[in-house]
Amino acid sequence: MASITRFDPFRDVASVHDEMERMLRQALGTGMGVRRGDDAAATAGAWGPALDVEESEDGYTVHVELPGIASEDVEVSLEDDVLTVRGERRFYEDREADGFRRIERRFGRFHRAVRLPDRVATDRVSATHKDGVLTVVVPKAEEAKPRRIEVRSA
User: What are the pLDDT digits (tens) for 42-90?
Assistant: First the structure.
């Protein structure tokens, strides 16, 4: 059975923007003469964790991949219908970078912001962190929820 997706003319533009930003950060981060073993080596390539935004009739659920990041190293905020997740993935505290032959994981500070399309109930937002995935539940405000209007005959 085919799935139905909502048409969003800006979806491709947003994904191209995200990819261009990621490539620019990677190019600038690796081309700045960072030395191996330096503290800046862990943060040389800026990164942003992958996220999904799921919409239901009652609200939004945002899933953010944060493997290897402790809950206390993550901050979630919501202001003007913009959900922001920021934090830091620290380099291995018990090891020196000189012993590694290959480092592909990104380390350092990250920041992701998502503008939610409808008004939300900021006082009922909740966040949980389990198995490397941060889940933020953002209920829609009552006035933003679709309502069925009964049509009565006159």
Answer: 334 467 899 999 999 899 999 999 998 999 999 999 998 899 999 998 8
Residue 17 tokens, joined: 């923007």
- Smallest Cα–Cα separation from 138: which of 59, 55, 58? 59
Question: Could you tell me the CA-to-CA distances from 6 to 1, 44, 126 in Å, in that order?
Answer: 16, 38, 26
pTM beyond 0.85: no
Six token digits for residue 147: 């309502």
Structure tokens given for 87: 């934090």
Tokens of 105: 């994981």
Structure tokens at 44: 């040389």
Instruction: List Cα–Cα distances, 50 to 18, 85, 95, 106, 119, in angstroms.
Output: 11, 11, 26, 12, 24
Distance CA 52, CA 39 (A): 31
Answer whether 89's CB lies under 8 Å from 69's CB.
Answer: yes
What's the rounded Cα separation, in Å, for the pair 87 and 110? 6
